[in-house]
Design brief:
The complex is a heterodimer. By secondary structure, chain A is mostly beta strands. Chain A has one helix at residues 35-42, and strands at residues 3-6, 10-13, 17-22, 51-58, 63-70, 76-81. Chain A has a single domain (1-26, 46-88), classed as Folate-binding superfamily (Folate-binding fold). Chain B has helices at residues 7-15, 43-56, 88-102, 104-108, 126-141, 151-157, 185-198, 242-249, 311-324, 373-386, 400-403, 409-412; strands spanning 36-39, 61-64, 80-81, 119-123, 147-149, 173-177, 181-182, 202-204, 209-215, 218-224, 227-230, 234-236, 256-267, 275-278, 283-287, 292-303, 333-343, 350-353, 359-363. The termini of chain B are far apart. In chain B, 30% of the residues lie in helices and 24% in strands. The chains are: A mainly beta, B alpha/beta.
Chain lengths: 88, 417
Amino acid sequence: MQLFPCPFCGPRDETEFHYGGDAGNVRPDGADVPIDRWANYLYLRGNPKGAAREIWVHMTCGEFFVMERDTLSHKVLSSAELGGEHTI
Amino acid sequence: MTRRYSALSLFKEGLAGQTGWKQAWRSPEPKSSYDAIVIGGGGHGLATAYYLAKNHNITRVAVLEKGWIGGGNTGRNTTVVRSNYYYPESVELYGLAHRLYEGLSKDLNYNVMLSQRGMVNLCHSTAEMEIGARTVNAMQINGIDAELFSPEDVRRVAPIYNFSPDARFPVFGGIWQGRAGTARHDAVAWGYARAASRLGVDIIQNCEITDFIVEGGRCRGIQTTRGAIRADRIGMAVAGHSSVLAAKAGFRLPINSYALQACVSEPVKPVLDTVVLSPGTGVYVSQSDKGEIVIGGGLDRIPSYAQRGNLPTLETVIAGLLEMFPIFGQLKLMRQWAGIVDVVPDSSPIIGESPLPNLFLNCGWGTGGFKAIPAGGTLLANLLATGKHNDISRPFDLNRFASGRLIDEAAGSGIAH
């Protein structure tokens, strides 16, 4: 069992967390967003091998946060509260 | 000199002390250019090369593999072959693969050990039975064999299932596909490799792609750890690593990579002669010809490129297995492993030209690529040879994510992720 650090609750079992997608994937705004921009937001992913910046939710406390993680070694690099730049 | 495998060649080699067997495929040095390059020496890549040579008479073809052929997901799956899908587009695709599998040993002159022992997807409630009936009806309308099983039918094909009154996942019936079964996964890779090599295809192992050669906005070749290789038609069939290559080519894909685990037990005497899947536990089980119980389950919960898998998911799978088959409580697990699968939002593959012209995609098979190998190869070969879709591959083009015309098998046939 791997421990993930919740910025609010500290280290907890990985099974308490749920993956929420790429960090920084901002929802397009406005009425005339082109189709490709929507497809980009809804479906296309970086899916990096190595360092990744991701949104996670700690299901126990219900808080969303940003975790930086290595997708090959599974090492957690950092974990922080959501800044103002993200829209969930 | 034994080129064609047969009972007679086996007999002759027996008399000759097994000294005449030749290497099954050549290992040539890469040439500087080809008519077509296939990236990825798994089942899909090798099948693509074979069908390029066989169906389209294009034999100046290289298959480039960064490790050894069949060493990725082709050697890590649970070997199930089936076509019990819901939407007509999927039925055309997986039905093609299933039909080709049925003739594959003869076509390749290589025994892929296809064993059509049938598969039952269980239904654990009256509501699931209604959905089961809907699935069976859809399959029959689309021309695929399917039968709605009663609890007695399930008991007949899988008597060791947990039918006790206090079972956590009781059986209300099931969806039966009699033509489903298993095939020897390594043999599929090796059979395609041997057949392709005999038609002139160069299979080059230990050759990793480092970059794409782009000229005039089109892909004209690739840089590899064994030098530059040029071609005007390039196909990639690299499953969980598709996004990594896409990043080198300058585009993104609707893919998340996850580890999918499987495990096998020690070999035991025959107890299970079919494939059983429980949607309640997400676990499916079969017994290999050697006697090992082959166990598969759902995806790991964490996006990953680590080919090993996480313990909590393995624990869930084994707990589910024991709910289904308490008889397996004393079994010892022999091996556990994981492959990196390319999961797409609608659980259907991506087949078509990529945003970089001349580069064609065969990816997004997620947890179910093995059963589709002959179709994935046929369709990518057709794209590489003609530059155009046919009616089977067209619905699976990458543009469905912009048009919104998804083929949602996650909902349609209840794929467990």
